[in-house]
Amino acid sequence: MHKIQFVCHGNICRSPMAEFVMKKLVADKGLSDKFYITSAATSTEEIGNGIDYRARRQLIKMGIPFSDSKTAVQVSRLDYDKYDYFIVMDDWNVRNINRIFLSDKEGKVHKLMSFTGSNADVDDPWYSGDFDKAYKDILAGCTALLQKLT
Q1: Active-site residue 14, yes or no?
Q2: Angle in degrees, 0-180, between the axes of helices 53-61 and 14-28, rounded to the nearest 10
């Protein structure tokens, strides 16, 4: 089983979008029983808050099912041994998650766009307002990640 945790700053936009996009891609391939997929934040700013309404609107627009009960949680040092992959959205998240974990001795932390052959960040739509662009990047990254894992 592949255990994946998507990570962004607040866990209300990019990482939950990635979580539910990946779950849909996996389900469409009939592989849901082979994956455990969650998302989390590196910060505590949004803990307990639901998915941002603009991210919800984007997921609905693209036909991606999501859980209304999803709330932001923070990644913890204990998560390191629970997951195979920590897929982060940008360089800032890489620094923050490595600070939380103290080290990435097993090489589990990866930027999402690295699976597409790019070192680009997934733009933070909380600031840019461009949920279409974030979604396109997330879909490309998740599609490439799934291809790598299967």
Answers
A1: yes
A2: 20
